[in-house]
Write a structure and sequence with these properties.
By secondary structure, the chain is mainly beta. 0% of the residues lie in helices and 61% in strands. The strands form two sheets. Strands 2, 4, 5, 6, 9, 10 and 11 form a seven-stranded mixed sheet that branches. β4 and β5 (46-51) form a beta hairpin. The relative contact order is 0.33.
Length: 119
C-alpha cells in the first residue's frame, strides 16, 4: 500500500521561511509527477508547485518565493517556502502520480500539514 507522509509546516511570521517534505513509501514501481497543493478555509484546493523528471511548474502567486525539488533515491519531494505571506496560510497537501506496477498508475494524496503565516 502506498503512503505519502508529510512533515514540516507550522507557524511562522510574515517574511519567514518554512520547509515541507513528503516521503512516499510502499510498493512502488515508478513515481511520476509529484506536487504540492494547498487549501485555505473556504477556498478550493489549488496547485502550488509540481515537478516531473525534467521540469517544474509553479502557481503565479508563489513564483520566486517557493522552490520544489525531489530526491528520487529517497522517494521524497520538498517545498522550500521563503518570504511567506499571510495569504499563504493553508493546509498543504502532497500529491503524486505513482505506478505501483508497470501499467498500473494511481494518484495519491498525503494527509495534509498546516502552514500558518501571521502578520
Amino acid at each position: 500500500q502506498v503512503q505519502l507522509v508529510e512533515s514540516g509546516g507550522g507557524l511562522v511570521l510574515a517574511g519567514g521561511s518554512l520547509s515541507l517534505s513528503c516521503r512516499v513509501s510502499g510498493s512502488i514501481f515508478r513515481i511520476n509527477t509529484m506536487g504540492w497543493y494547498r487549501q485555505a478555509p473556504g477556498k478550493q484546493r489549488e496547485l502550488v508547485a509540481a515537478i516531473t523528471a525534467g521540469s517544474t511548474n509553479y502557481a503565479d502567486s508563489v513564483k520566486g518565493r517557493f522552490t520544489i525539488s525531489r530526491d528520487n533515491a529517497k522517494n521524497t519531494v520538498y517545498l522550500q517556502m521563503n518570504s511567506l505571506k499571510p495569504e499563504d496560510t493553508a493546509v498543504y497537501y502532497c500529491n503524486a502520480d505513482i505506478n505501483t506496477r508497470r501499467y498500473q498508475a494511481n494518484n495519491y494524496w498525503g494527509q495534509g500539514t498546516q502552514v500558518t503565516v501571521s502578520s
